[in-house]
Write a structure and sequence with these properties.
Blueprint lengths: L16 E11 L2 E11 L6 E11 L10 E6 L9 E6 L2
Parallel strand pairs: 3-5
Antiparallel strand pairs: 1-2, 1-4, 2-3, 4-5
Length: 90
C-alpha cells in the first residue's frame, strides 16, 4: 500500500527547532535569541541551566526584545546567521 500525503506542508523537515527569548533587535533583519535548556549533571544528578545565544534572520523586523519565538535551522544566511524565526510562541 502506498502512503498518500494529504498535507501540503511537510512538518518533518529534519531541521531543529528551538524556543527562546529575543534579547536584541538592533540590527536590520536580524535578532539575537537566548535559548535556555536544562542539563542533568552526570555525577550529582542536579539540573543545571545552560544558555546560548543565536543570531537569527528576521525578515520583517517584527521581533521585539522580550518576545518568545520559535527558531529553525536554515541554510547559511551570513557568517553568523544559520537560524530563522518561524513563529511566535503563543
Amino acid at each position: 500500500m502506498a502512503a498518500t500525503a494529504t498535507n501540503t506542508e511537510s512538518t518533518n523537515t529534519g531541521r531543529r527547532r528551538l524556543t527562546g527569548t529575543v534579547v536584541s533587535n538592533k540590527m536590520e533583519k536580524s535578532a539575537t535569541v537566548l535559548v535556555e535548556r536544562l542539563v542533568k549533571h552526570p555525577r550529582y544528578h542536579k539540573y543545571i541551566k545552560r544558555r546560548k545565544t543565536y543570531m537569527v534572520h528576521d525578515e520583517t523586523n517584527s521581533a521585539q526584545p522580550g518576545d518568545v519565538v520559535v527558531i529553525e535551522e536554515s541554510r547559511p544566511i551570513s557568517r553568523r546567521k544559520r537560524w530563522v524565526i518561524v513563529g511566535d510562541e503563543a
